[in-house]
Amino acid sequence: IAYTVAGNGNTVLSQTPGASDTVTTALSKIILYTDNTEGQSVTVPNLVGLSLTEAIKIALSQGFNIRLLGNSASYPNANDIVYEQSLPPNMLTKRGGVITLRAIESNFED
Q1: C-alpha 66, offset from chain centre
Q2: Distance between CA atoms of 108 and 110, rounded to whole angstroms?
Q3: What is the DSSP letter of 25?
Q4: What string of DSSP letters covers 38-86?
Q5: Parallel/antiparallel/unpaired status of strands 29-33 and 2-6
Q6: Which helix (H) or strand (E) holds 3?
Q7: What are φ and ψ of residue 100, in 5° steps?
Q8: Which of 44, 73, 84, 109 lies 20 to 30 Å from 8, alpha-carbon distance?
Q9: Is 14 helix (H, G, I), strand (E, B) or coil?
Q10: Residue 45 CB: number of other CB atoms within 10 A?
Q11: Sign of the C-alpha dihedral, residues 43, 69, 67, 27?
């Protein structure tokens, strides 16, 4: 898993995501804080209705770590559409936080 160091200290004081958070490794980066600043706040985007590919691109560009649930977690494809996200749109949260996405294949039939 990738990581980045934020701050000028020599000792890690905290990290995002936390030790007990679950993420999809290939879509995540740990932020290690070495001073008392825990990073900036970011606004949660509305990812529902977007393709999974586009939702991941947006979430990563805004500094979120991603956890995928459902079939998309094991077999994501270009037809997957996000239908649920764990953090509500427009909420302020810590950069590096985890957003869980659930997607369904757009041509799914009952």
Answers
A1: 3
A2: 7
A3: G
A4: ---EEEPP--TTSBHHHHHHHHHHTT-EEEEESHHHHS--TTEEEEEES
A5: parallel
A6: strand 2-6
A7: -95, 130
A8: 44
A9: strand
A10: 18
A11: negative
